[in-house]
Amino acid sequence: MKIGILSTNKNLYSTKRLVEAGIERGHEMPVINHKRCYMNITSHNPSIHFKGEAIEGIDAIIPRIGASVSFFGTSVVRQFEMMGVYSVNESVAITRSRDKLRAVQLLSRRGIGLPVTGFANSPDDTEDLLQFVGGAPVVIKLLEGTQGVGVVLAETKKAAESVIEAFSGLKANFMVQEFIKEAGGSDIRCLVVGDKVVAAMKRQGKEGEFRSNLHRGGSATLIKITPEERSTAVRSAKVMGLNVAGVDLLRSNHGPVVMEVNSSPGLEGIEKATDRDVAGMIIEFIEKNAKQGKTRTRGKG
């Protein structure tokens, strides 16, 4: 098979591992910089071009779309879908998971455990909003943030009001969530492929840091997850429509709660912490499921 990896940097660990895993299994693995693609959107014969040539012969794609280029990146994925190319994560699912508020609403509708979350447009509603989520301390998140950027822990009511006022002044969209103190600055990253959690690690924030992201100096260790945590991770990925997802959970006093469902999870931390060949499992999933025109949405929505 010819499996294209949509990535802006062929030297990233995740991209290199997917290329290696595919080549080991006898596949052709071109890396396509989706930011440099351009599209001919025409009836009956849609096409994608790169450096003056049409991209042809691709059987499947693995989108590795960065949050900063979600709009253009998902439009490229959608164009591949319109061409009948199988995408391991479809454009609609990526868009769904990238919109943090939409994701929380969809997960809550399916009864999946979440931190209590509030969302408002006017700073006049701040007091009521803080009461929704149980009062300070609270976590305030920019809806466009990623890798822990734009996430603030407000430890007092006054601090929360100041942050909300600042974000409102910038016309930024944000949500307010209860702070799960008992998690102790750690979370669990579950890597879901298909309908299975294939690897799980505990991420611990560095001293004095409530965010556990590895990009922010957190550490990763192997962890054994409970059946409830496994089920929550798989169900969350399914609600988003993602075949490959990184589901971030917190252990709360009322069971596992989902913090985020990531459509382009990094492989370095989890492969090194668990010694699992996650890249190989993603390629195996594509081998079993990729068929011409099998994409459910075919670029719709």
Describe this structure in words.
The strands form 4 sheets. A 5-stranded antiparallel β-sheet has the order 14-13-12-15-16, sandwiched between helices. It has a 4-stranded parallel β-sheet with strand order 2-1-6-7, sandwiched between helices. The longest helix has 14 residues, at 227-240. The protein folds into 3 domains: 3-89 and 285-289, 3-Layer(aba) Sandwich (Rossmann fold); 96-113 and 182-275, D-amino Acid Aminotransferase, Chain A, domain 1; 117-179, Dna Ligase, domain 1 (2-Layer Sandwich). 32% of the residues lie in helices and 25% in strands. The chain has 301 residues and is α+β, with helices and mostly antiparallel strands.
Layout: helices, strands, pairs:
Blueprint: E1 3-6, H1 13-24, E2 31-32, E3 37-40, E4 47-50, E5 53-54, E6 60-63, H2 70-82, E7 86-87, H3 91-98, H4 100-109, E8 117-118, H5 126-132, E9 138-142, E10 151-154, H6 157-169, E11 174-178, E12 186-193, E13 196-204, E14 219-222, H7 227-240, E15 244-252, E16 255-262, H8 268-274, H9 278-289
Parallel strand pairs: 1-2, 1-6, 6-7
Antiparallel strand pairs: 3-4, 4-5, 8-11, 9-10, 9-11, 12-13, 12-15, 13-14, 15-16
- Shape type: globular
Number of helical segments? 9
Which homologous superfamily in CATH is the superfamily of the largest domain?
Answer: ATP-grasp fold, B domain
Helix content: 25-40%
> CATH top level of the largest domain?
Alpha Beta
Which assembly state applies to the chains in this document? single chain
- Taken in chain order, the helices and strands follow as EHEEEEEHEHHEHEEHEEEEHEEHH
* Overall number of strands: 16
Q: Taking all residues together, what is the mean pLDDT?
A: 89
Strand content bin:
25-35%
Q: Let me know the largest β-sheet.
A: 5 strands, antiparallel
Structure classification: alpha+beta
Distance between the termini: 28 Å
Number of domains: 3
- Please identify, by name, the CATH architecture of the largest domain: 2-Layer Sandwich
Strand order of the largest sheet: 14-13-12-15-16
Enter the CATH topology name of the largest domain: D-amino Acid Aminotransferase, Chain A, domain 1
